[in-house]
Amino acid sequence: YELIWAVNKPAPDPSFDHYEYGGCCVADTLFMYTGGGLKSLFQTGPLVEKRRLSDGSAVWSLQSGTAPGLGGNQVFDLAVDANGLYCATVYRSDFGAENRQLEKRLLSTGAVSWGLVLNYTPVGIDIDETGIYVCGFNAQVQKRNFTDGGLIWANTPGSTKGHDIKVGFDGVYVATEYNWASGSTGGAVEKYDKDSGALLYRVYRADM
What we know:
Helix content is 0%, strand content 57%.
């Protein structure tokens, strides 16, 4: 493949413990949206950017500063449609407590349209025309509405962590992690009903 364009980001500065981290992106017909985090001695927080597909130039870049010097502030995943940008985001307070949110941002400016605090760390997000699908680090799989993130359905399947989620025409698919009583860890793929959230099947890594 031929490289079409590349954008140089600020280089890490070890003397000030300054660097960007993370890495998720999504695109529509004209723009790409990237998510991650920025850490320094003075400020750290989730980082969201909108860039042009034509040349990678920035339309806007937003970093929501929180606790100086603390890592872990990050946008874990993104989804986009004509009405907004949806972010799975974690903020950390000055004392290290996590504020875990599902956010909808305006495409024009990146401003937060609404933010919903969750009781788990959201790391995977996807959308279709009927809602927002989220999975995360507390054995949660959820579907939420576009208006304010209100819950449509939730399922607690018994897995330890949901790492990624994708919605297809016939169901919702989740890549999960399990911690067994023996102390070993294994993966699985799960399929859920889009309308009810019912678990349709689970295939463990050992069965693949």
